[in-house]
Amino acid sequence: MSADGSSINTLHRTQSSPAIENAIDRSAPTFTAALEKDETSYFDTNPPPPELEEFSRIAEEFVNLHCSHQRRVVLVTSGGTTVPLENQTVRFIDNFSAGTRGATSAEYFLEAGYAVIFLHRQFSLLPYSRHYSHSTNCFLDFLTEAPTDGNSRNTIVARDEYAAEMISVLRKYNHAKREKLLLLLPFTTITSYLFLLRALAVKMEPLGSKSLFYLAAAVSDFFVPRERMAEHKIQSGEFAEKDGEMEFVNPTGPGSGKKLIIDLDPVPKFLKRLVESWAPQSMIVSFKLETDSKLLIKKCNMALKRYSHHLVIGNLLQTRKSEVVFVDQKSSHWLRLPPQNTEGEKNSGGKFAAKYEPEIEALIVPEVVRRHGALIWNVVAATRSS
Ligand code: PAZ
Questions:
Q1: pLDDT (tens digit, 9 = 90+) per residue, 9-43?
Q2: What is the pLDDT of residues 311-360, one digit of tens each?
Q3: 210 in contact with ligand 1, CB cutoff 6 A
Q4: 97 CB under 6 A from ligand 1?
Q5: Which among 13, 14, 96, 97 is the best mutation to test ligand 1's pocket, defined by most ligand atoms within 8 Å of the CB?
Q6: Residue of the nearest CA to atom 5 in ligand 1?
């Protein structure tokens, strides 16, 4: 936050559950799929994230481990990508995504026996800790001091009303940790996300059809290319040298006529490269977010046609937590949570999404897993008969 209390980091932020009449209209132009030359150009002209090599190495070990157990591995992408406006970044463009879809889905994939690479926006929701980390109350509200006999050291325990749920979450979390089933890899910018996605896809190649891509991250459609990015913090006025000192001129004040105009390029649509070149044997599921219900299925079908992947899961910003539509080459069908009848049932004083709020991911993930199973089976059958 800046000194006057306004946000300097987030230039454009929507509420995560806006009223329908306030939702943004994403009537952006549609772009064609990226070709090999677009890939070369993008990855040659934008700098890789410093952690690329380390994350690639860790992912390779993770894949080898689970390959040796013949386990299915899913790469879940989650959260929003930022678009920096300066190389030494003070300001960036962001989006609404908190990573709920990704973090919740990851838990259901783990429950279904998958190993999960969780490529997520730094500080967004994480599997398991999501039940406590971003709750309306402080996490300390879940804890209390245990009574002591006077001699023993002070101890903190979970409050009675939360303990049963916490133990269940803790056991699942510990199991995932012990069995090395969950790999958490953070990103922040759109460029880091794309470098990491490509590198991880290539590392997952030995898994063949046992690998699944579940692309739930809200990836920016526009960015500032490196060659046009300011090096330092963009100033609200200009500086000129006077008597050996830098002096501020042209301040932006009411009526000064000064504006910050940001010129963004479209981010190349690399889904086609993922399907055709980076992970050709994998099952690939993308998400499509819209705000206009009349466009949703149309846009899902356009994406399928353009990228030729397996499945698009469509959702509307306003209703994404209660309904989604599965669109594949043959048909579309909706998955919906049953309507909730009473407030008390919905949120009976708790912060535990898993217990008190039904989650649409509990419907989405088993259906994706079923389809992935069918694909693996078809590949095995085709290999046998050839
Ligand atoms: O992170 P979240 O749970 O708040 O939102 C999930 C979502 C709407 C970002 C996801 O379901 C989705 O649609 N991702 C793809 C967005 C898009 O680029 O169209």
A1: 223 333 445 554 544 444 445 568 999 999 999 99
A2: 999 999 999 999 999 999 999 999 999 987 655 444 433 444 434 579 99
A3: no
A4: yes
A5: 97
A6: 97
Asked if residue 254 belongs to a domain, the reply is: no
Whether this model's ipTM surpasses 0.85 comes out as yes
Domain span at residue 198 reads 29-137+180-225+266-385
Closest of 48, 186, 220, 206 to residue 117, by C-alpha: 186
Domain assignment present for residue 153? The answer is no
- The tokens describing 339, both together, are 């309507």
- 119 within 8 A of 77, measured Cβ to Cβ: yes
Judge whether 152 lies within some domain. Answer: no
**What pTM was computed for the model?**
0.87
Expressed in angstroms and rounded, the spacing between residue 289 Cα and the centre of ligand 1 is 6
Spell out the residues 6+ positions from residue 293 whose beta carbon is closer than 8 angstroms to its own.
316
Alpha helices in the chain (DSSP H): 36-45, 52-68, 100-111, 130-133, 160-178, 190-203, 271-273, 293-307, 343-346, 353-356, 361-385
Q: Shortest CA distance to 271 belongs to which of 285, 250, 257?
A: 285
The CATH number of residue 47's host domain is 3.40.50.10300
Is residue 158 one of the residues assigned to a domain?
no
Count: domains in the chain: 1
Residues 6+ apart with CB under 8 A from 282: 201, 204, 207, 208, 209, 211, 212, 213
